[in-house]
Amino acid sequence: MISSPWKNFNFIFVLLTVAVFILINFSSVFHLGFFSAVIFFGVGFAYKYPRKAIWAFLIYLPFSGTVTYWIGGGSPLFTFIKDALYFPALIAFIQEWRQEPNQFQINKPLAISLSMLLGWCLVVILLVNSTQENLAQGIMGLKVLMGYIPLIFCAYYLII
Fold first, then answer.
1. How high is the pLDDT of residue 120?
2. What angle in degrees, to the nearest 10, is found between the helix axes of 132-147 and 81-99?
3. What residue segments make up the domains of the chain, in order of their start?
């Protein structure tokens, strides 16, 4: 677990979650305020407890399509709910790995291959998806393609 620089992190975080809920609830509908507060709480939970968040993400991942279309009605915002758990936990894992004396190392050939894949994807996004609408879709596809590669290492780290 990562030690927080703030002593009252939990209390401050709960206050911020309530503030986000109240601000968004007064400015628009209740559902938007509620779900934004839940997502905000999920981000803090994922950063503070990255192991539990990665396990929750791994359990939620097979059912994310069902949740998106059944509960969320196909809303694009529901596709980002799983990212609210994954990316803060990934950042916390990276910080945790850097503090360990026996850091987890990525093989050099794998790093070169992933760099080449990222470069090729960026070239394709810039050359093929030239319009702004297609550019956003290309960036979303890049997130899906490259964003979950570190999950392999996170899951391995959880098992060992």
1. 92
2. 50
3. 1-103, 104-160
